[in-house]
Amino acid sequence: MMQIPIIFLLCIFLQESKQNITAREICFNIKKMEDGPYWPRLVKDAKKPGFLHTDFSRWKDEDDSEEEDTAIDDNFESVSIEKSC
């Protein structure tokens, strides 16, 4: 199995983050450790990695309601990440 390190901008909750691995893509639903404003970017490095893409069909603006769409998480399972910070 191939491993690709992703260093997030800030800390995340591993227990509440989810992943969905298919033959075509790997999707993550990452839960931030601290509530607050949206992150300016996902990773520490200012340049986005070429393999990382935004799924705009699941995009939520800061002013959108806080209700979570539980149907999105139906196919997701616990994340197997080594560390959160």
Overview of this protein structure:
This protein is an all-beta fold. β1 and β2 form a beta hairpin. It has a domain of 51 residues. The chain has a three-stranded antiparallel beta sheet, with no helix packed on it. It contains no helices and three strands. It is globular.
In short:
The chain has 85 residues and is an all-beta fold.
Give keywords.
85 residues, 3 strands
Strand content: 15-25%
Q: What's the order of the H and E elements? A: EEE
Distance between the termini: 23 Å
Report on the biggest sheet. 3 strands, antiparallel
Side by side, the strands of the main sheet go 2-1-3
The count of DSSP E runs of length 2 or more, i.e. the number of strands, is 3
Q: Quote the average pLDDT.
A: 79
Which residues sit in consecutive blocks of at least 5 with pLDDT less than 50? none
Question: Rg to the nearest angstrom?
Answer: 13 Å
Inertia-based shape: globular
Overall structural class, as computed from helix and strand content, comes to: mainly beta
Helix proportion: under 10%
Put simply, the count of helices is 0
